[in-house]
Amino acid sequence: FYKTAQVVKELGFDGVDINMGCPDKAVLKQGAGASLIKNPTLAKEIMAATKDGAKDLPLSVKTRIGDTKNILDEWLPVLLSAKPAAITIHARTRKEMSLVPAKWETVKQAAEIAKGSGTLVLGNGDVEDLDQAKKRVDETGCDGVMIGRGIFGNPWLFSGRKKEEIPLDERLKVMLEHTFLFEELFHDIKSFDIMKKHYKAYANNFPGASEMRTKMFNAKNAQEVADIVKQHFAIAV
Q: What is the pTM of this model?
Protein backbone atom coordinates (compact mmCIF):
# COMPACT_ATOMS: atom_id res chain seq x y z
CA PHE A 1 0.00 0.00 0.00
CA TYR A 2 2.92 2.32 0.67
CA LYS A 3 4.34 1.69 -2.81
CA THR A 4 0.92 1.80 -4.44
CA ALA A 5 0.20 5.17 -2.87
CA GLN A 6 3.46 6.49 -4.33
CA VAL A 7 2.47 5.26 -7.79
CA VAL A 8 -1.01 6.77 -7.44
CA LYS A 9 0.56 10.11 -6.55
CA GLU A 10 3.00 9.94 -9.49
CA LEU A 11 0.12 9.22 -11.86
CA GLY A 12 -1.58 12.44 -10.78
CA PHE A 13 -4.66 11.11 -9.01
CA ASP A 14 -6.46 13.25 -6.44
CA GLY A 15 -6.65 10.68 -3.66
CA VAL A 16 -6.52 7.04 -2.60
CA ASP A 17 -9.64 5.05 -1.74
CA ILE A 18 -9.29 1.68 0.01
CA ASN A 19 -12.09 -0.87 -0.33
CA MET A 20 -12.63 -2.54 3.04
CA GLY A 21 -16.11 -3.72 2.13
CA CYS A 22 -15.77 -6.08 -0.85
CA PRO A 23 -17.55 -9.41 -0.07
CA ASP A 24 -16.10 -11.38 -3.00
CA LYS A 25 -14.85 -14.76 -1.80
CA ALA A 26 -11.56 -14.55 -3.72
CA VAL A 27 -10.87 -11.16 -2.12
CA LEU A 28 -11.80 -12.36 1.37
CA LYS A 29 -9.51 -15.37 0.98
CA GLN A 30 -6.57 -12.99 0.63
CA GLY A 31 -7.45 -11.22 3.86
CA ALA A 32 -8.56 -8.16 1.91
CA GLY A 33 -11.86 -6.35 1.34
CA ALA A 34 -14.48 -6.90 4.03
CA SER A 35 -12.23 -9.38 5.85
CA LEU A 36 -10.38 -6.33 7.23
CA ILE A 37 -13.43 -5.62 9.39
CA LYS A 38 -12.31 -8.64 11.44
CA ASN A 39 -8.67 -7.48 11.45
CA PRO A 40 -8.66 -3.89 12.73
CA THR A 41 -4.94 -3.96 13.50
CA LEU A 42 -4.09 -4.72 9.88
CA ALA A 43 -6.64 -2.17 8.68
CA LYS A 44 -4.90 0.56 10.69
CA GLU A 45 -1.47 -0.54 9.42
CA ILE A 46 -2.70 -0.40 5.82
CA MET A 47 -4.13 3.08 6.27
CA ALA A 48 -0.96 4.34 7.93
CA ALA A 49 1.25 2.91 5.17
CA THR A 50 -0.94 4.45 2.49
CA LYS A 51 -0.78 7.88 4.11
CA ASP A 52 3.00 7.60 4.46
CA GLY A 53 3.31 6.72 0.78
CA ALA A 54 1.42 9.80 -0.36
CA LYS A 55 1.39 12.31 2.47
CA ASP A 56 -0.37 15.10 0.59
CA LEU A 57 -3.13 12.96 -0.95
CA PRO A 58 -6.42 12.49 0.90
CA LEU A 59 -7.17 8.93 2.01
CA SER A 60 -10.69 7.54 1.99
CA VAL A 61 -12.12 4.15 2.93
CA LYS A 62 -15.25 2.30 1.86
CA THR A 63 -16.52 -0.33 4.26
CA ARG A 64 -19.60 -2.06 5.66
CA ILE A 65 -21.37 -1.95 9.01
CA GLY A 66 -19.85 -5.27 10.06
CA ASP A 67 -19.11 -8.84 9.05
CA THR A 68 -22.25 -10.69 10.19
CA LYS A 69 -23.77 -7.99 12.43
CA ASN A 70 -23.63 -4.25 12.98
CA ILE A 71 -20.41 -3.40 14.85
CA LEU A 72 -20.08 0.25 13.83
CA ASP A 73 -19.63 1.33 17.46
CA GLU A 74 -16.32 -0.53 17.60
CA TRP A 75 -15.29 -0.66 13.93
CA LEU A 76 -15.79 2.95 12.90
CA PRO A 77 -13.63 4.44 15.68
CA VAL A 78 -10.76 2.23 14.43
CA LEU A 79 -11.02 3.82 11.00
CA LEU A 80 -11.50 7.32 12.42
CA SER A 81 -8.31 6.97 14.47
CA ALA A 82 -6.34 7.03 11.19
CA LYS A 83 -7.99 10.37 10.32
CA PRO A 84 -9.08 9.59 6.75
CA ALA A 85 -10.64 12.37 4.70
CA ALA A 86 -13.81 10.33 4.17
CA ILE A 87 -15.44 7.02 5.03
CA THR A 88 -18.19 5.53 2.87
CA ILE A 89 -20.56 3.25 4.74
CA HIS A 90 -22.29 0.55 2.72
CA ALA A 91 -25.32 0.06 4.94
CA ARG A 92 -25.21 -3.74 5.01
CA THR A 93 -22.97 -6.41 6.55
CA ARG A 94 -20.52 -8.50 4.56
CA LYS A 95 -22.83 -11.50 4.94
CA GLU A 96 -25.81 -9.57 3.56
CA MET A 97 -23.86 -8.55 0.43
CA SER A 98 -26.55 -6.69 -1.58
CA LEU A 99 -29.30 -9.23 -0.94
CA VAL A 100 -31.29 -7.21 1.61
CA PRO A 101 -32.43 -3.57 1.67
CA ALA A 102 -29.76 -1.14 2.83
CA LYS A 103 -30.15 -0.13 6.49
CA TRP A 104 -29.85 3.64 6.26
CA GLU A 105 -30.37 4.08 9.99
CA THR A 106 -26.81 2.73 10.31
CA VAL A 107 -25.51 5.59 8.15
CA LYS A 108 -27.14 7.99 10.62
CA GLN A 109 -25.42 6.06 13.41
CA ALA A 110 -22.08 6.41 11.59
CA ALA A 111 -22.56 10.14 11.07
CA GLU A 112 -23.21 10.58 14.79
CA ILE A 113 -20.12 8.55 15.74
CA ALA A 114 -17.94 10.58 13.35
CA LYS A 115 -19.34 13.97 14.34
CA GLY A 116 -16.53 16.41 15.12
CA SER A 117 -13.83 14.05 13.84
CA GLY A 118 -13.12 16.00 10.66
CA THR A 119 -13.86 12.90 8.57
CA LEU A 120 -16.70 13.03 6.07
CA VAL A 121 -19.24 10.20 6.20
CA LEU A 122 -20.87 9.09 2.96
CA GLY A 123 -23.76 6.64 2.74
CA ASN A 124 -24.17 3.88 0.16
CA GLY A 125 -26.90 1.40 -0.73
CA ASP A 126 -30.01 1.29 -2.96
CA VAL A 127 -29.83 4.92 -4.10
CA GLU A 128 -31.10 5.25 -7.67
CA ASP A 129 -31.25 9.00 -8.36
CA LEU A 130 -30.26 12.43 -7.08
CA ASP A 131 -33.59 13.01 -5.35
CA GLN A 132 -33.12 9.85 -3.29
CA ALA A 133 -29.54 10.87 -2.51
CA LYS A 134 -30.61 14.29 -1.20
CA LYS A 135 -33.36 12.67 0.86
CA ARG A 136 -30.87 10.26 2.44
CA VAL A 137 -28.54 13.11 3.36
CA ASP A 138 -31.41 15.00 5.00
CA GLU A 139 -32.60 11.90 6.89
CA THR A 140 -29.24 10.72 8.19
CA GLY A 141 -27.07 13.81 8.55
CA CYS A 142 -24.33 12.20 6.46
CA ASP A 143 -22.12 14.40 4.29
CA GLY A 144 -22.94 12.80 0.96
CA VAL A 145 -23.94 9.67 -0.91
CA MET A 146 -22.04 7.20 -3.06
CA ILE A 147 -24.11 5.68 -5.86
CA GLY A 148 -23.12 2.22 -7.09
CA ARG A 149 -25.49 0.02 -9.08
CA GLY A 150 -27.83 2.99 -9.61
CA ILE A 151 -25.49 4.28 -12.31
CA PHE A 152 -25.74 1.06 -14.35
CA GLY A 153 -27.37 1.87 -17.66
CA ASN A 154 -27.95 5.44 -16.51
CA PRO A 155 -25.03 7.79 -17.25
CA TRP A 156 -27.61 10.60 -17.26
CA LEU A 157 -28.07 10.25 -13.50
CA PHE A 158 -25.75 13.10 -12.47
CA SER A 159 -27.27 15.47 -15.02
CA GLY A 160 -30.58 15.18 -13.19
CA ARG A 161 -32.40 13.72 -16.20
CA LYS A 162 -34.79 10.91 -15.32
CA LYS A 163 -33.92 7.60 -16.97
CA GLU A 164 -37.54 6.87 -17.81
CA GLU A 165 -37.65 10.15 -19.77
CA ILE A 166 -34.67 9.25 -21.98
CA PRO A 167 -35.85 8.27 -25.51
CA LEU A 168 -35.11 4.64 -26.35
CA ASP A 169 -32.96 5.47 -29.37
CA GLU A 170 -30.76 7.75 -27.25
CA ARG A 171 -30.49 5.09 -24.55
CA LEU A 172 -29.38 2.44 -27.04
CA LYS A 173 -26.95 4.76 -28.82
CA VAL A 174 -25.27 5.53 -25.50
CA MET A 175 -25.22 1.81 -24.68
CA LEU A 176 -23.35 1.15 -27.92
CA GLU A 177 -20.98 4.06 -27.33
CA HIS A 178 -20.27 2.60 -23.90
CA THR A 179 -19.71 -0.84 -25.44
CA PHE A 180 -17.24 0.37 -28.08
CA LEU A 181 -15.35 2.48 -25.53
CA PHE A 182 -15.11 -0.51 -23.18
CA GLU A 183 -13.67 -2.64 -25.97
CA GLU A 184 -11.24 0.10 -27.01
CA LEU A 185 -9.94 0.72 -23.52
CA PHE A 186 -10.02 -2.77 -22.01
CA HIS A 187 -9.78 -5.23 -24.92
CA ASP A 188 -6.49 -6.69 -23.69
CA ILE A 189 -7.14 -6.11 -19.98
CA LYS A 190 -10.67 -7.26 -19.12
CA SER A 191 -13.09 -9.82 -20.49
CA PHE A 192 -15.80 -8.43 -22.77
CA ASP A 193 -18.31 -10.31 -20.58
CA ILE A 194 -17.84 -7.65 -17.89
CA MET A 195 -19.52 -5.13 -20.18
CA LYS A 196 -22.61 -7.32 -20.47
CA LYS A 197 -23.72 -6.68 -16.89
CA HIS A 198 -24.82 -3.22 -18.05
CA TYR A 199 -27.16 -4.42 -20.81
CA LYS A 200 -30.07 -5.34 -18.58
CA ALA A 201 -30.04 -1.80 -17.20
CA TYR A 202 -29.78 -0.12 -20.61
CA ALA A 203 -32.14 -2.34 -22.62
CA ASN A 204 -35.43 -2.81 -20.79
CA ASN A 205 -39.10 -1.84 -20.77
CA PHE A 206 -39.76 -2.08 -24.50
CA PRO A 207 -41.19 -4.84 -26.73
CA GLY A 208 -38.53 -7.45 -27.58
CA ALA A 209 -36.11 -6.22 -24.91
CA SER A 210 -35.63 -9.66 -23.35
CA GLU A 211 -34.94 -11.30 -26.72
CA MET A 212 -32.43 -8.61 -27.67
CA ARG A 213 -30.62 -8.85 -24.34
CA THR A 214 -30.32 -12.64 -24.71
CA LYS A 215 -28.59 -12.14 -28.04
CA MET A 216 -26.31 -9.43 -26.64
CA PHE A 217 -25.31 -11.65 -23.72
CA ASN A 218 -24.03 -14.16 -26.29
CA ALA A 219 -22.11 -11.57 -28.32
CA LYS A 220 -18.33 -11.80 -28.45
CA ASN A 221 -17.46 -8.19 -29.24
CA ALA A 222 -18.82 -4.68 -29.66
CA GLN A 223 -19.58 -4.99 -33.37
CA GLU A 224 -21.73 -8.05 -32.75
CA VAL A 225 -23.70 -6.10 -30.15
CA ALA A 226 -24.15 -3.23 -32.61
CA ASP A 227 -25.37 -5.62 -35.31
CA ILE A 228 -27.90 -7.12 -32.89
CA VAL A 229 -29.27 -3.67 -32.02
CA LYS A 230 -29.52 -2.80 -35.72
CA GLN A 231 -31.54 -5.97 -36.32
CA HIS A 232 -34.13 -4.76 -33.83
CA PHE A 233 -34.04 -0.99 -34.41
CA ALA A 234 -33.14 1.35 -37.25
CA ILE A 235 -30.44 3.10 -35.28
CA ALA A 236 -27.37 4.61 -36.95
CA VAL A 237 -24.27 3.50 -35.08
A: 0.89
